[in-house]
Amino acid sequence: MDGTIVDSTEAISKHWHKIGKELGVDPSVILLTSHGRRSIETLALYDQNKANWDYVSHIEGLIPKEYGGDAVEIPGARSLLAALDHANAPWAIVTSGTRALLTGWLDVMNLSHPNNLVVAEDVSAGKPAPDCYRLGVEKLGLITEKAQAEILVIEDSPAGVLAGKAAGCQVIGLATTHTIDELRASGADWIVQDLRSVVFLGLGVDGMIQLEVSDALQP
Q: Which of 53, 73, 202, 208 is 20 to 30 A from 42 (CA-CA)?
């Protein structure tokens, strides 16, 4: 979600500065490892009492409300999601954020909501563990090994790329939050700058999504 559909870098920075002050922890230290990681795991490093879903959902639900003006959509995200939605294509959002954070951003940014969501609370282990993407595959009904190999994951973080590959999927890395070298080292099959390079062409006769990927930074 963050870094693939929405760029909420400034909002998340303000959020962790606020939480860091409450915890008595330097927010710059928190921000070094928080991206792509579930907040419950980040909080567990500093205060086990706050590492629970009630608290995490509460604080994450406030982010779009308090800092919505600091977020922008990733270029190409709106048109790609709208095209997928209009064609009733099989797609899902798999995120390390909570349901409150995800729906909050989609609502604030007025972006398409998928029928299938996998959020932080749905799995016991966050990225780079493949659990979230395996659950996403299951929700899409594409559970055969052949089908999994044809699923395309779009990720911006090394942890996310690793999770997608471990789940048996192909992965496009977006160079929105990490370097090309970091995405390459994580195993991304293709690397592009943003979603302007990923265009929905339609559904094939087999119901599979057809995409065109252009301007690859790494083939």
A: 73
| DSSP annotation string for the chain | -BTTTEE-HHHHHHHHHHHHHHHT--HHHHHHHHTTS-HHHHHHTT-GGG-SHHHHHHHHHHHHHHHGGG-EEPTTHHHHHHHHHHTT---EEE-SS-HHHHHHHHHHHT-PPPSEEE-GGG-SS-TTSTHHHHHHHHHHT--SHHHHHT-EEEESSHHHHHHHHHTT-EEEEETTSS-HHHHHHHT-SEEESSGGGEEEEEE-TTS-EEEEE-S-SB-
φ, ψ (nearest 5 deg) of residue 199: -120, 130
Q: Other C-beta atoms within 10 Å of 95: how many?
A: 25
| 59 token code pair | 């604080």
What residue type is assigned to position 134 of the chain? R
CA atoms of 8 and 52, how far apart (whole Å): 23
User: What pLDDT does 145 receive?
Assistant: 66
| Identity of the residue numbered 45 | L
The residue among 6, 60, 22 whose CA lies nearest residue 177 is: 6
